[in-house]
Amino acid sequence: MHLGLKPSVDECSKCQGPVVRGYFDIEAGGMVCPPCSPGQFLSDHLVLSEEDRHFLKQGDQFRLTHWQSIQFPRANPFLLVRLMTQLAQFHTHVQLPF
Prior knowledge:
This protein is of the alpha+beta class. It is built from two helices and two strands. It has helices at residues 50-57, 78-92, and strands at 23-25, 30-32. A two-stranded antiparallel ribbon has the order 1-2. The longest helix has 15 residues, at 78-92. The chain is globular, with a radius of gyration of 13 Å. The mean pLDDT is 76.
């Protein structure tokens, strides 16, 4: 059982099987494997790199009071910030700025 909004990045959010390649589904709360997403288009903006997935997996260890010192895994962290903001908005029903 999980409390909070930590996304599932190592296993499918629907079947709990391992995910090697898949896409991030905001409604499901994490990665979804191809068998659980028939007919879904794997667009580049939803496919996360291994580095991005590792970063999100470690997210619960970050101190938000030290936001400026967090080292994002890519030169442009906009995708990850937008993704996490959308995830939080969807699951909390609170409008957040991004």
